[in-house]
Design a protein that fits this description.
Elements (H helix, E strand, L loop, with lengths): L4 H18 L2 E7 L6 H12 L1 H5 L3 E7 L10 H7 L4 E4 L23 H23 L1 E8 L3 E5 L13 E4 L2 H9 L3 E4 L2 H10 L4 E4 L1 H7 L7 E8 L2 E7 H4 L4 H34 L13 E2 L4 H26 L3 H8 L1 H4 L3
Helix pairs in contact: 2-10, 6-11
């Protein structure tokens, strides 16, 4: 059978289209735990599930929240470095044992509000990005907040001083040292384990953001919240350099622009959730994003505010610097050069 020029042209076009389809990039991504709530559900997951549309790249992403993978949230940098995943929603404090520089984003007492947190993240970004690229072959694509991490307790606490002798769930060593300094007993524990541990009395108190506590049901068990953020819950997005380097310069620019947009959206949404969840947790209006509970919100005392303000210089910074400088002698010096001016430290 003779093939006409028109048919031949159509066959060639279809062949090219098929080849291009075969070249579509497929990535695997680890997200935040389902249990952490609305940032994961409403912002992060839709972004990754509609990745090609959001980035303008021929990339599809197999996205899985980390608490559905069997992988510990302390192992994220390792799985990126190994090539098992291409993209990860990095839980910064949880991975700080593998890379202490991560904790420099969110030392206890460093970020008292969203404005400061954003300035710290911007100032420290390049330093942290270079470190992650060197040590783990991971490029940092952005930093974003869960929001102020506050204290929830079953016991009728009225100030930080009342934590003395109580067991407190913590997510990193810097926070553990602060809890010890006020007489509490720090208990390192994953987010997913905390609800049951509060219920069974394994811990008396726990620290997280008010929206995450609401979504995870901690507020079913706790009776008090003290709305004074000891940390900002800063996290990030990272991509393996192997995957990043497969993109051309134009594609890399598109990807970075998309993550810049995503990060800005989370910063705004996080602040909205924080304010709303504080209301929801005590049964007040407006409450539009969570369930209403009947916690008592304890107004932070001047002593608590001063204690937290002083903790940065007296506890969290020197203790973190000692650990980080063992791994990288320039660690604290780099931090002080970039972040110090933002928070008034030399």
């Amino acid at each position: 059978m003779r093939i006409t020029p028109l048919v031949a042209s159509l066959i060639a076009t279809l062949a090219i289209g098929s080849a291009q389809a075969d070249e579509a990039i497929k990535w695997k991504a680890i997200g935040q735990p389902l249990a952490t709530g609305l940032i994961q559900k409403n912002i992060e997951q839709p972004f990754f599930e509609n990745f090609a549309e959001n980035t303008g790249l021929p990339v599809t992403v197999d996205y899985k929240p980390i608490d559905t993978t069997g992988i510990k949230d302390t192992e994220q940098l390792r799985v990126l470095k190994s090539g098992l995943f291409d993209l990860v929603s990095i839980r910064a404090s949880q991975n700080s044992r593998d890379e202490p520089a991560l904790l420099g984003l969110d030392l206890v007492g460093l970020n008292p509000d969203y404005e400061t947190g954003r300035k710290v993240a911007d100032a420290y970004f390049d330093t942290l990005d270079q470190r992650l690229q060197k040590q783990f072959r991971v490029k940092l694509l952005g930093v974003w907040p869960f929001g102020p991490q506050i204290l929830f307790c079953k016991s009728p606490v009225a100030s930080f001083a009342d934590v003395k002798g109580l067991k407190v769930r913590v997510s990193d060593q810097n926070l553990a040292q602060f809890v010890e300094s006020i007489g509490g007993i720090p208990v390192p524990m994953s987010f997913a384990e905390t609800h049951q541990s509060l219920s069974l009395g394994v811990v008396d108190c726990a620290i997280t953001g008010p929206s995450s506590a609401n979504s995870a049901g901690w507020t079913e068990i706790a009776t008090r919240q003290i709305p004074l953020g000891v940390q900002m819950g800063l996290n990030g997005y990272g991509i393996s350099l192997k995957s990043w380097n497969k993109l051309d310069a134009g594609q890399q620019a598109k990807l970075q622009t998309a993550f810049d947009t995503l990060n800005s959206k989370i910063w705004a949404y996080s602040e909205e959730l924080y304010k709303d969840a504080l209301n929801c947790n005590v049964g007040a209006e407006p409450c539009t994003t969570g369930k209403k509970y009947k916690l008592i919100s304890v107004e932070p005392s001047d002593a608590d505010r001063q204690l937290l303000k002083g903790a940065l210089q007296s506890i969290s910074l020197p203790n973190w610097a000692a650990v980080c400088d063992k791994v990288n002698p320039q660690c604290s010096a780099d931090w002080k050069a970039k972040v110090g001016p933002v928070v008034g430290l030399k």
